[in-house]
Inverse folding.
């Protein structure tokens, strides 16, 4: 699943590219890309409608229309869309009366057509803090974490606490905060909570500013097929076996937290 920075970057790109444009046709080339209850007739019912804003939910991007329906993309891959010509196999193509078509790559989505008034029930907004929607004070951030128990890493990965963080940004945030992933946040003092809150905000801001991350295991690209520019700024992810850039004493390593692999500097994350 796409992590929060990349999901929001794709949402913004799609919104810029399609909002206000009239849908000319939708050619379905892979019926397996359509979700349950959505057949070719449902997709064809969007032809002639004008695309409106694109919204996101966890793992989902949804294109609104003035027909009172949304074309909902449940994402299965990190590089689902193209607005450029290419030879990648496509699941279907949305053509507009002006501008380039939107190609949806094979194997990357399940698409459904959902009525506006059914969308929120089918794809509810996350219960956790959405940290790209707006600034959150460290006190609000702390209240969302404290008292839940468990490891710090598990809390950051929990969508009911913070929406949309995955292993890449969780490990990067914890490195920037200088905190071990197995720590219990209930034992933190004010300064550690402030430091963690600041690290979350800074990492997400820089990742968005730089166009997201693309790693060997996480093949994110934008609508033009371009890799994310934050990849070169990753401090622990993708750097296992290399010296820590902060302390210069430690070597970036992997460890198991709650049965899942995490990437850390064992020397300066305390």
């Amino acid at each position: 699943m796409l992590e929060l920075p990349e999901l929001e970057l794709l949402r913004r790109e799609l919104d810029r590219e399609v909002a206000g444009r009239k849908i000319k046709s939708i050619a379905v080339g892979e019926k397996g890309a359509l979700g349950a209850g959505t057949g070719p007739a449902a997709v064809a019912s969007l032809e002639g409608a004008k695309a409106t804003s694109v919204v996101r939910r966890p793992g989902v991007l949804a294109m609104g229309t003035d027909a009172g329906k949304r074309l909902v993309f449940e994402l299965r891959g990190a590089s689902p869309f193209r607005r450029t010509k290419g030879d990648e196999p496509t699941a279907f193509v949305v053509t507009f009366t002006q501008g380039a078509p939107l190609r949806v790559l094979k194997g990357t989505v399940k698409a459904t057509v959902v009525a506006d008034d059914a969308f929120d029930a089918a794809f509810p907004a996350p219960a956790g803090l959405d940290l790209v929607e707006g600034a959150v004070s460290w006190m609000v951030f702390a209240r969302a974490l404290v008292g839940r128990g468990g490891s710090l890493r598990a809390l950051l990965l929990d969508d009911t606490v913070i929406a949309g963080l995955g292993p890449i940004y969780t490990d990067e945030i914890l490195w920037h905060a200088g905190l071990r992933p197995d720590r219990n946040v209930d034992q933190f003092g004010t300064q550690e909570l402030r430091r963690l809150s600041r690290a979350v905000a800074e990492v997400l801001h820089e990742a968005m500013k730089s166009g997201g991350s693309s790693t060997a295991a996480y093949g994110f690209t934008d609508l033009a097929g371009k890799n994310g520019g934050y990849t070169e700024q990753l401090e622990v992810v993708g750097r296992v076996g290399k010296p820590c850039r902060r302390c210069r004493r430690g070597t970036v390593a992997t460890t198991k937290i709650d049965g899942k692999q995490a990437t850390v500097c064992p020397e300066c994350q305390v």
